[in-house]
Amino acid sequence: MSKIPEQRILELEAKVKLLEKQKARAEHLAERADKKVIIFDMLVDMAEREYDIQNKKKLHTQVIDQYREQTKETIVSTCGLLGVNRQVYYRTKKSKLRKQNLAQQVIDLVRVLRMKMPRLGKIKLYYLLEEDLKKIKIGRDKLFRILQANHLLIIPRESYHITTDSHHRFRKHKNKVCNLKINKPEQVWISDITYVRRRENPSYLALITDAYSKKIVEV
């Protein structure tokens, strides 16, 4: 049984109302998404100003690559979404690859020397590799940055002299002033020995100090 024109008109009006609601909701969601983008850009700009972070341009290529991997979008559409020129994207990728290749060459040179001398520091490394580094246009500061980024810097060992031995074989006297209440000068003297760093020979300094005034009474 065919529908009368009035019924057909009512159905079309209902569909139009439904489409209008869907359109209004889509516009509302799009407006919220635009506001989120604006707020996010404001947060990034504020972080750059407040914390002196200058990484927005450097992160563009990483964001584009990660977004394309997740969404299978094209370079053209992804660069358009971020407002990045495709030539800039390709130039940045090429520059990053070139820097990685240079860093790898430096790492290979360093590892060859470290095979023979594992504790070789950055200054000596630069001195020994200076001619090879000049060929690939790597200076001292660049070498140090590459070593730091790849965890190849040598942590210096702390050299110190032990001045206290509590496990000797000689007689040990009891601490007679452990519970003594010190309330005046010249009541208790304390002696100690310490190590003084020198370029030539190690030196030791023995002091006698007043326990109350902390004054050095004898050297």
List the SSEs and their pairings.
Blueprint: H1 5-51, H2 56-71, H3 75-82, H4 86-116, H5 122-135, H6 140-149, E1 189-196, E2 203-210, E3 216-218
Antiparallel strand pairs: 1-2, 2-3
Walk me through this protein's architecture.
This protein is mostly helical and 219 residues long. It is built from six helices and three strands. Helix 4 (86-116) packs across helix 5 (122-135) and helix 5 packs across helix 6 (140-149). The model has no long low-confidence stretch (mean pLDDT 82).
Helix content: 55-70%
Q: Which stretches of 5+ consecutive residues score pLDDT under 50?
A: none
Assembly of the depicted chains = single chain
Rounded to the nearest angstrom, the distance between the terminal CA atoms is: 120 Å
Name its key features.
219 residues; mainly alpha; 3-stranded antiparallel β-sheet; 3 strands; elongated
Provide a quick synopsis of the model.
Helix content is 58%, strand content 9%. It has helices at residues 5-51, 56-71, 75-82, 86-116, 122-135, 140-149; strands at 189-196, 203-210, 216-218. Helix 2 crosses helix 3 (75-82) and helix 5 packs across helix 6.
